[in-house]
Amino acid sequence: MEASEDADTAANGGDQLAETPIERVRELIERVVEAMGLDSRVDVEENDEEIRAYVHGEDVGLLIGKHGATIDALQHLAIRTAYLNQTGDRKAVVVDAAGYRERREAALKRAADQAVADAVKFGRAVELEPMGAYERRTVHTYLRDRTEVQTHSEGDEPDRRLVVTPVQGSGDQA
To answer: 130-143 burial, b if ≥16 CB within 10 A, otherwise e?
Structure first.
């Protein structure tokens, strides 16, 4: 057995690793859900931009974890597992449970809108709460077309945060 085959087998609990990224994501999520003893169903969809796994069922709050820490870690593992030993183009991989990602994205957008309003009104940089890379990317993307502010990230994990800074002369535009 070659070294890459050993890694594939070890990463999949002794079984052969699924052939496609979507199958790998499904297997990983199903194994974690089963190991956590959750009575849940896993659905995985793929489009041109992403692979998205949904977990439906009882007690998925345990899978989400405090401040989304568990589901963020699972999503990180899903990304790594989906493209294990593969090079080339990679799609985004998103893991969601009970609509957590949509609710969290809405909360992030509200916080971003408030930060823009405050930055422009007071003419100073506004820091958002510490967040993971996926959430920071969501806010950067959401605000990228806003001409009155710029965004950047500061700090080190796990306290890395997004900063919204007003563009010179934008205070009159609000």
So the answer is: bbbebbbebbeebb
* Residues near 44 by beta carbon (within 8 Å), at least 6 away in sequence: 22, 25, 26, 29, 51, 52, 53, 54
Residue-wise pLDDT tens digits, 18-62: 889 999 999 999 999 999 999 999 999 999 999 999 999 988 999
Q: Please count the structural domains in the chain.
A: 2
Q: Which domain holds residue 131?
A: 103-172
Helix (H, G, I), strand (E, B) or coil at 19: coil
CATH of the domain at 164: 3.30.1370.50
Q: Are residues 11 and 77 in the same domain?
A: yes
pLDDT category at 15 given cuts 50, 70, 90 is: low
Residues 93 and 120 in one domain: no
Residue 139's identity, in one-letter code, is V
- For residue 11, what pLDDT is reported? 47
- Rounded to the nearest integer, the mean pLDDT of the chain is 88
How is residue 88 annotated by DSSP?
S
Residue 84 neighbours by CB under 8 Å, 6+ apart: 7, 8, 11, 17, 24
DSSP code for 38: -
Model pTM score? 0.77
